[in-house]
Amino acid sequence: MGQPRPARNQSAWWRSAVIYQVYVRSFADGDGDGTGDLAGVRARLPYLAELGVDALWFNPWYLSPLADGGYDVADYRTIDPAFGTLAEAEKLIAEARELGIRTLVDIVPNHVSDQHPWFRAALAGGPERELFHFRPGRGEHGELPPNDWPSQFAGSTEPVWTRLPDGDWYLHLFTPQQPDLNWDHPAVRREHEEILRFWFERGVAGVRIDSAALLAKDPDLPDYVEGRDPNPYVDRDELHDIYRSWREVADAYDGIFVGEVWLPDSERFARYLRPDELHTAFNFSFLSCPWDADRLRTSIDETLAEHAPVGAPATWVLCNHDVTRTVTRYGRADTGFDFTAKAFGTPTDLALGTRRARAAALLSLALPGAVYVYQGEELGLPEVELPRESIQDPMYTRSGGTDPGRDGCRVPLPWTAAEEHAGFGGEPWLPQPADWPAYAADRQADDPASMLSLYRAALRLRRDEAGFGDGPLDWLPAPEGVLAFTRADGLLCVVNLSDGPVGLPGHSRLLLHSAPLTADGLLPPDTAVWLRA
């Protein structure tokens, strides 16, 4: 299955790790039914080892009706049969670890599926209603929702309350199939701590926490007022006691957490990263930042500054399962990302976007801290504009069909150019474009100029060369539109976002470039380079 790689800095591996995000449903289909599964992942572990990643983060693989891509969990202790079995998950965790690759699982603590045993019992009128947010409605006959909170799905105008035949309403910040849990109830807290122990005991190295800032709610459930402090359901102070208790669980297993924390206030963001809470959190400022030197530098500086007081490492990510793929986003007139700005038919220059995405890969991999790579980014996959009848994402339906949703970045991966369905397996659950074989991993593996070859070379250098990973960063003087900085041991990174070629600082060795230099040794536009002083 491949040769194990020695893990670097075992005690704090997560501070410098490259973590690969696996959206199982779209990764590889091992049984030919058109849905990616654990058998498909196990068969591709040698590919992931050769790529050079340190860990795998799996989106939810639990039993789920898939009303929201698996983020509606019916049972955390059961693998969804579409993906495999718990025994297969345990084998996958062990086999990956033999290759030097750790595993992180996804926990969704804000809500469960409406098929979860707790909620089914609550619907039957049992005491389990206390585990959720059930309320009588407003209005003369209770016909109005208990409050006016907005949906967490951008562009959705649908209410976050659903009324039952008995007249009560229940809260769901996402879809009606995802009822929010009541984190004031001790049984909710106990259950999630047991879920953490369950997976740590099966060998996982860490947990990614979905919607980490949403769990706690104002018990009075007041109406939403823009700018109200504290917010009735985002970033409430009660959350920190929850995560302190979780940290005690993780520390008993030497496990780590990464939180999905979308907050504009850097000081409040940093609170989640105090030494007795979460280890790391996703950096959404960098992910959504346009391809602009000044704004990228500001994002990098602010990220490092907000992490410094609590001693936590930064994380860097260009794309994930919710976000427009990098080569597409960087090829558009607006190169940033905003959920509210997504629209059908947005023009894209893929050649330009690909060139920028290659440079951005070297930029992110040279920054201090950990890096997350979403599956298919190493293949340079573009966002797919799917036929409307194929879209399954509730973002599309809840927006009334104006938001294209997130399925465009979830199209199943191409593995083998000459095989049916580009080697994914059976007929994919989302349709692949006609040009998908051109991006196949087997074709790119033999092309030294491919995106896959670039990622493999970059990850190999990041592991073998001194100066990468966690540590200091110092900016160098550079022309307008150019980012240039040094890391430890004489490592330099230069990224040219200007309109013309620029000279390079003095160096003894060129380690890697995202595109060839000009004939006279200049760095072309939209190109990055790693140097050794």
Automatic annotation (TrEMBL):
Gene3D superfamilies: Glycosidases, Oligo-1,6-glucosidase, Domain 2. One of its GO terms (molecular function) is alpha-amylase activity. SUPFAM superfamilies: (Trans)glycosidases. GO terms for biological process: oligosaccharide catabolic process. This is Alpha-glucosidase. PANTHER family: ALPHA-AMYLASE FAMILY MEMBER (PTHR10357), NEUTRAL AND BASIC AMINO ACID TRANSPORT PROTEIN RBAT (PTHR10357:SF179). Residues 21-410 form the Glycosyl hydrolase family 13 catalytic domain. CDD domains: AmyAc_OligoGlu_TS. Belongs to the glycosyl hydrolase 13 family.
